[in-house]
Design a protein that fits this description.
The chain is α/β, with parallel strands linked by helices. It has helices at about 35-40, 70-75, 85-100, 110-120, 135-145, 170-180, 205-220, 230-240, 250-255, 285-295, 305-320, 325-345, 360-365, 375-385, 425-440; strands at about 55-60, 105-110, 130, 150, 190, 220-225, 260-265, 275-280, 355-360, 385-390, 390, 415, 450-455, 465.
Length: about 475
């Protein structure tokens, strides 16, 4: 007979841990509900106006809030601060060329600066710029030049409970119709990867090919708004047929092969605290943008960035286009999504790459849209636990530049944006339970907020509100 100790052993599958270990920590403090109620009142119910030390877990944005690696900190100390011809610029340029195939690179101090420089050359009064759910700064830079942004996102993105792998895609039928209608008024096509406004949803490689084909049909050029291009490449690898065996860098290079240029907020997938750039394959775009970079940002080999930041960015771009780093980051977003699933809290499905977008219209069903449900939900979450999120909805949508009416046609979402390599899953548990507590008393929340003051453009950063 076989002895008991001769029985075959059952090997357990090892759980997936983070692809990094912690070297330094920063203390954070909790607060009382009464303190938070006073603080948010003093901030005119605008979470952007809260000092950071009044926030326990900060999910306002993943922009510039990530934790740099040891290699990035080492590169920081080696930065070349020469005004012209900085060695750090050439290090950054070479990495961008290798990842994207774009010959010409102009650094800027952040992504909206890249838009400002490039759009100053490309966008003129009366122009039309189609794309997939232009983010607020992108739309602002278009509309401030008295041009028109036209959303051509697939209709599936509007159904937050629909599970589809690439809800950030451009509807090429809509795009074709816009190009046919407006012709020479179309400056370019812009595709945001991932699609932030639609819930951090990715764009497929097939869709990028199809956009390229439509652009070529009408002789138009394509820009990729690339703040989260590496996360988009991760989703192509894990969700799109034919890419499972490709590296992130190989996928990245193919994505950019279907574009003519890019704007980049390096504060996201570059994992630096400040920085951005423009890159293009076209010399005419480069020459045109140069004329605006020098007066707006600085000389062409620093363009608003320190040499040390360019050095850290070069390393960050290289590191964050590796699978393990991205997988760790996106698994944490999926962990928070799974906790919300336990509590039945609706969000834009499937979970995106950088954030969970809670569908406020399905949570605060008794708050009229005119009273900004997503902003109301964000305030309730802050008062509950000191968690700061960001409204991506009717406040952010601004007013129609012609009618000056509020734009209520899009989604009304509370974005819980997770910084890279900053919080643990214990923090995700706090966020989930705090949101559950708000969700459980949702029927008692029947009124929202009204605007007492707003800026004409990109109002959500500085708007003042009062409760109704």
């Amino acid at each position: 007979m076989r002895q008991q100790n001769d029985l075959p052993l059952k090997t357990m599958e090892l759980p997936l841990a983070e692809s990094w270990k912690i070297k330094m920590v920063e203390p954070i403090r909790t607060s009382t509900r009464s303190e938070r109620e006073q603080w948010i009142k003093d901030a005119h119910y605008n979470l952007f106006q809260l000092p950071s030390d009044q926030v326990y877990i900060d999910l306002l944005t993943d922009s510039g809030t990530g934790a740099m690696s040891d290699r990035q900190w080492a590169a920081l100390m080696m930065g070349d601060e020469s005004y012209a011809g900085s060695r750090s610029f050439f290090e950054l340029r070479d990495v961008v060329r290798r990842l994207t195939g774009f010959e010409y690179v102009i650094p800027t101090h952040q992504g909206r600066a890249a838009e400002n420089v490039l759009f100053s050359y490309l966008v003129h009064e009366g122009d039309v710029v189609p794309g997939n759910s232009h983010f607020d700064t992108t739309k602002g830079h278009i509309e401030s030049r008295h041009a028109k942004a036209v959303d051509c996102t697939v209709d599936a993105a509007r159904d937050t409970q629909l599970e589809l792998p690439f809800k950030g895609n451009v509807d090429t039928g809509k795009l074709d119709a816009v190009l046919a209608k407006y012709g020479d008024k179309v400056s370019f096509i812009i595709v945001t990867i991932t699609n932030n406004t639609a819930g951090g949803q990715p764009v497929s490689m097939q869709n990028l090919r199809e956009v390229r084909a439509v652009a070529d049909k009408y002789g138009k050029r394509v820009i990729l708004d690339s703040a989260r291009f590496a996360e988009n490449a991760y989703f192509i690898k894990t969700r799109e047929e034919g890419y499972a065996d490709k590296t992130i860098k190989e996928i990245t290079r193919e994505m950019f092969s279907y574009a003519d240029g890019m704007t980049m907020s390096a504060k996201k997938d570059g994992i630096v605290n400040m920085g951005g750039f423009i890159a293009t394959r076209h010399e005419d775009w480069y020459e045109g943008a140069k004329n605006f970079c020098i007066p707006f940002e600085g000389y062409l080999t620093y363009g608003g960035m320190n040499g040390r930041d360019m050095a850290a960015l070069a390393v960050g771009l290289d590191e964050n286009t590796e699978f393990d780093n991205l997988a760790t980051r996106i698994r944490q977003v999926e962990y928070l999504a799974a906790r919300l699933d336990e509590f039945g809290i609706p969000y834009q499905r499937p979970a995106g790459g950088h954030a969970i977008f809670v569908d406020a219209s399905l949570v605060l069903t008794k708050v009229p849209k005119e009273e900004f449900p997503a902003q109301t939900l964000a305030i309730e979450l802050y008062k509950e636990a000191g968690v700061r999120g960001c409204e991506i909805g009717y406040l952010l949508a601004d007013r129609d530049p012609v009618t000056r009416e509020n734009r209520f046609g899009g989604l009304d979402l509370l974005r819980l944006c997770i910084p890279r390599r900053v919080y643990t899953n214990n923090h995700m548990d706090v966020i989930a339970v705090a949101l559950k507590n708000v969700y459980d008393r949702r029927d008692s929340i029947t009124r929202g907020y009204e605007i007492t003051w707003e800026a004409e453009l990109m109002r959500h950063f500085t708007v003042r509100l009062k409760p109704l």
